[in-house]
Amino acid sequence: MELSTGKILEENLVQSAFHLTQGDEFTFDNLFPSQSWIPKIIKKRVCTTFVEDSLRYMCVCLSVDCYGWLCCGGVRETHCSIATGDFFGAAIVSQWDSSQHSSEYPTDAFGELEFAGAGRRHSHFLRLSCDTPPHIIYSLMTAHWGVPSPNLVVSVVGGREKVKPWVREVLRQGLVRAAQSTGAWIVTGGLREGVGRCVGEAVRDHAAAASSLSQKKVIAVGVAPWGLVHNRQWLVNSEGSFPARYYVQNTSHDSCCLDSNYQAFLLVDDGSVGQRGGETAFRAKMEDYISHQRTGIWGSGSIDVPVLCMLISGDAAMLERVDLSLKKATPWLVLNGSGPAADLICELLDALSAGPMSPPSPQPEVEGSEKTSAELRDRARERVRRHFPAKADLEKLVDRALSIYKNRDLITVFHGEQESSDDFDTVLLKALVRASKRVSSDASEYTEELKLAVAWNRVDIAKSELFNGDIQWKYEDLEDSMTDALINDKPQFIRLFNENGLNILDYLTYRHLEVLYRSLSDSSLAFTLLQRLLTERQGLAICSPKEAVALKSPQNPMSPLSGPSSVKELSLYEVSRLLWDILGDVCEPFYYSLLGLDQSASTRRALKQVNKLLQGDCSYREQSCLYPWASLFIWAVLQNRSEMAVYFWEMAGESVHSALAGCKILRELSKLESETETKLSMKELAQKFENLALDVFSECYQSSESRSFTLLIRQSPVWGKATCLQMATSADARHFFSHDGVQSLLSQIWWGDMKRSTKVWKLVLSFFLPPLIYTNLISFRLVEHEEEVRSEEVPLGRDTESLDGGDATMLSLSDIMQTEEDVEEYAALRDNLKSAPSSNPKRPFVLLRWREFWFAPVTSFLGNVLMYFLFLILFAYILLLDFKPPPPHGPSTLEFVLYFWVFTMVCEEIRQTFFRGNTTLYQRMKLYIEDMWNKCDITAISLFALGMCCRMFPWSYEFGRAVLAVDYMVFTLRLIHIFAIHKQLGPKIIIVEKMMKDIFFFLFFLAVWLLAYGVANQALLYSYDPRPGWIFRRVFYRPYLHIFGQIPIHEMDGCTNNATLVEAGAEPCMSTDHNWLVVILLVIFLLVTNILLVNLLIAMFSHTFSKVQEHSDNYWKFQRYNLIVEYHSRPCLAPPFILISHLHLIIKRHIRKIPSTKIKHFVLEIHGREASRLNTWEAIQKENILFAQNKREREKDSERLKRTSVKVDNVLKQMAEIRDHDRRLRMLETELEYCSSALSWMTEALSQSNLVKTTRPPPCTRPSCSKAPPQHDAATPVLHS
């Protein structure tokens, strides 16, 4: 059967391989579109041989309950007519065997189980043959049923008798809580009897008190024999039950019904009916298979899944179950005092340890290799007889007991009445570590214990037991556990490892980084995006012509996907592509230089280079990651792991940059995420990073204003040479821009070398009368500028800065606030300052003051506004008064001036599109088009060009005039963007923009009512009107006028009913047959539109206004930055004089190759010692923020209550230990009293007998002896034979 099912699975896997390469999630649902695949793979067993049992009064199939083999136990009616015959000829069947006397058929019971009246979610169930391969069932449970893969499997076995109260407490407080903290499966029989019922009740109590996330971590699985399940016929359905209703009688006594508190049921069928033990073999195989699977996501953990069997009570047959599991090296936890079998094993371990038996070998014992002494066997027989006196096969039980004792290193005893259930998880850990040490003798005990603690996410155990200072950990010991903690999202362990000797520079190589990206969960958005990019690269590798020829050659019969595994696996190129798609508008590509790629290369060429690189030795993978914490931060942010991402942010440098980058990545991913809950969590984490960036920058601004300015405009080598301002703009971080430090820098840049207190009317007056700039009308910061330039001349060897934020600045404001001047001239100015600081030769005052005024962004803005108003006045004058006929009579001279003016605007738009930044042409065009006002400019210029061309010809003259008139409206609306700089009008622009979106929703509802009422009104009033134009007018236009109260009564006069005249164009008369209905429709229409829809629109406007007005300051400050950047990059002259500036820029940038120094106002590149000192200073401010946050967190009432609760728990634990010590002392006193009484009795008996002749009186207590006279002759008693 295993071969056939494996073949079926293999064929379906091959068929689905193409879909898997496309990034689809692999589940059984992808293999089979419905549930019909289950009977094709999973089988049941049916008894095919009926042999009458002569030992019973009724006619049943042979049911001799012999030790070691199974029986059917079903009546004749349960066997089919064909199966009742003797299939074995004349052979006499004396013993029923499942493998010989039953056959496999497709299963007929599977699906979901609904417990009537339980009110719980559905449970999964499956009837399966006892010979079913366990790997199929495990894959079914994890991949199809969605059961989380376990970090631990606790298989609870025991008897059917009543469970003791302290055992119930251990199950409820110890086992279930340990399962919740470790993510374990609890496997029992799943029936409402004995131990299975107690475990179900413990899981139920936990689910009632725990959160939904904690409930998912506790998985209870029932493995029961099919023939023993009560009312199993309700589960039978050959096509599956979704769900099957199962009725359970709620009684206090035990029964063989399924327990409603289990998440999954595996009903093992061996063909028997009403018999126990049919599931034992399958359960043991299932446990053994799971024990060889890896923990973590997709088996990414560092250890196999630990499997621990737990024995509670049990009968004599349970000894065989324990013995078989111990021989497979499965550890056991035995509850002493819980019942016969458990008590017997505990007594064997205590009593036989003192016997003459050699210590166990560290290697597994071979059966029969060591003979026990007769004395040891007698002692074992005595204890077996004490616990199982009625058993006839005593010697077999003794053999089982001795075999169990040989593997005693795998057994851990839990004394429930003496040990607390709070320490049960620690007991589990110790038991598994003890077993792993026995199996892996070469492994360190502490390493195995650490791996288990990581697998269970028990950092408290690791801190108290492993990282308490007694153990010196090495890097090799922590490497695997670090990988496990990273992949399975355990940030507390990562913090613990980093604090205890793990060097992240040694750990995180690029190979490790690729492994981390390959381990992404297939349910995450990042995994899907990376798989798409990987499929694209693999597709190019397959379709490459050279490779295709090579693949077709007879010397290379490989498939297209064969070859080096690195070509087929995820690489850093896919990660770089993903980050480029997310951050490409502000950052340079990540890992391109590492892979030897050129940023300007096309995608296809880059893919070919990467495939060629991956086919080689890939030497880059052995290099240490250049920025390890930042790389891990990106990896965690892409997976939306909040706690881990915050910790990596704390460890990474450039805190403000990193926080804003995380905010940008998360907000971009949230736009692509389809799951609502995940999208909200991404947005919350993005806001958290924005707040962190704001807090750190606020601390930096309070420490040093000049350094904080440098921090904003510094290019980051970690984040692709992006600045904080660029990253914040791309991340839409409005709260960050609203900070006073950011606005202070923007104001400095906006006013240039002029003082910020300058009045606007002074600027306007100086704009029209330029000689006024040489007077004292406008104040300049020239003296301050010279002092700042001189402050740069401090010798480099003299450290005048303090890392905690002194008054000295690392970079003076002259580096930030330079004017637009040539590099050579500025260098000459610096040389002159160095040589003669007392008499600095400067530019001529006239030229210097001219540059300081006209090169300020505020002057450029003012000039553009004034010239734009002149442009609109000229445009309006031409449209209204000077719009000449087509050539040769026109256009006029002023109209040609207007054409030239628009041409200069086109030149400026071309400059903004193609001559800004160092990005690719596609990115420049994309960034240009994304701006709404640039779209408005394109529309206006396009309409102007169309109108200008049309007005040149007589046949299209009027149309061109109309186009230009409409275009004037577009140019006028462009004025709205200018008012964005105003603090009061700026937010109103945002309000209008958002209200436009509300209007579209309103118009949609309005159009529905217009269409409904218009068509009905036209059909009722006009029986015949063949004119389409008039029909369209009455259907849409006239109902729209009805909203405003305009009802055209005058159209009722001069009408006709003559069809010929109507077709000729006459107005048809209205029909009066349905006037009453028309009036009703009109009333309803006006009621809905004028009252309902209009008030709905007003309410939407009010909501939008209040929402924007609440954050109007943030909106304005963010808008202000974009406007300042735009006019800072514009030439100082406005159209139409802007051509002069364009020619100057062409000569300066492209002919003389002089780079711009004005860009340093927003982008500053620093290296070496200055960059290191700035990073150190920023890190100190971040530490101050984190310390303050931790202090506030500790002072919260919830944290105080938590610490108090821990202290109370410790006190209660100590009190429990004191009570335990007191109980033990009382027991010791009782034993001493007994011994004293026995000795007194012996003394009295000896004194009354003739065996001893005393020469002195018996001893007495000290007080009584102190009163008696001292005895000087001490004679010893003499014994007579």
Automatic annotation (TrEMBL):
Record bears the keyword Signal: no
Membrane topology value: Multi-pass membrane protein
Molecular functions per Gene Ontology: calcium-activated cation channel activity; ligand-gated calcium channel activity
Coiled-coil features, chain-numbered ranges: none
Cellular compartment(s): Membrane
Keyword Transmembrane helix: yes
Gene Ontology CC: one annotated term: plasma membrane
Domain TRPM-like: 465-739
Keywords noted in UniProt: Ion channel, Ion transport, Membrane, Transmembrane, Transmembrane helix, Transport
Transmembrane segments: 853-878, 936-956, 1000-1024, 1076-1098
Major subcellular site: membrane
Every TRPM SLOG domain range: 124-346
UniProt domain Ion transport: residue ranges: 868-1112
Annotated segments matching region Disordered: 356-375, 1250-1281
Protein known as: Transient receptor potential cation channel, subfamily M, member 4a
Biological source species: Oncorhynchus kisutch (Coho salmon)
